[in-house]
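Researcher: Next entry in the queue.
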Amino acid sequence: MWREGYVPGGGTRFFVRALGSPPWRDTDVATEREDELCVLLHGWPEDSSSWRRVAPLLVDAGYRVACPDLKGFGRSDAPRRGYDAETLADEISQLIRNLHARKAVLVGHDWGGAVALATAFRHPGRVRALVIASSPFRQIDLRAAWHIPLINVPVLPELTFNAAAGPILRTAIRHAAVVEEPFTDEVIDGYVRSVSTRHAAWMAYYRTLSRQVLVSWAARRVRRRLPMLPEGHGPNRLRVPATVVWGEQDPVTPVHLAPRVAHDLDANLVTLPGVGHFVHEEDPLGFARAVIDLAGPGAGFASMGAGGRGR
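Model: Structure for this entry, 311 residues:
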């Protein structure tokens, strides 16, 4: 049965949905069971309920699962500042500690993947394994992600979303998803509520983290045109095992970005056929298997079962 509550992470209070054995208790002492905790970070325009199909599969594999609403989304705090990579990473690191674990398997989709990656680089001692999905790292395709520079325009995006958030978000979800079954009207209405009242908060991700991606992308293009310049950074050696998951038909972050992201992170690459941007919702079983293949089963492992995508 799902449990809900608020858990602090630094100066931010996170609303957390949890499944499995209790992820928080009335004690300040971390347990020895850190290998059993998975922390799942959603992306835009979703909230922590987007993990409703993946979380039970991870619990069946022996994990306890905590799914926070990201800062600025859903019922978590939405301050005006603090959306830089360093602050976000520090907060997730402290959230893991406050979930009474020394380490966690950290999983992130879209902007949740960017936050998970920043946490793994900055606080590797808190991360046992890392899975990021549909989350560019030093890569971008502006032909597909044309909305990123638009959201970086001052004022206009806020005015636009204030006027028509519902239709915009519904169109965005329908465009990005190949498997539409998980996205019922009820589910989409929940996501609209998650982001429709505090646009400036979630837009801060695009106006901070995306700029790092854009700078890296621009630098790569310059190097291609000027071969005399050094190639730049090679693979970023994470100090934790990592897997990159991608939908083969993703129209927002196209799959051709995936091999380079995996190379730059020195990570495994798993591509899921027949799904779009929301890989964890469109193919929950394939996604959960990618997590288990990397991190291994938790204590109390039973079975994930067999069969298709678990839709």
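Model: Residues 26-32, 228-235, 303-311 have pLDDT under 50 and may be disordered.
Researcher: Noted, moving on.
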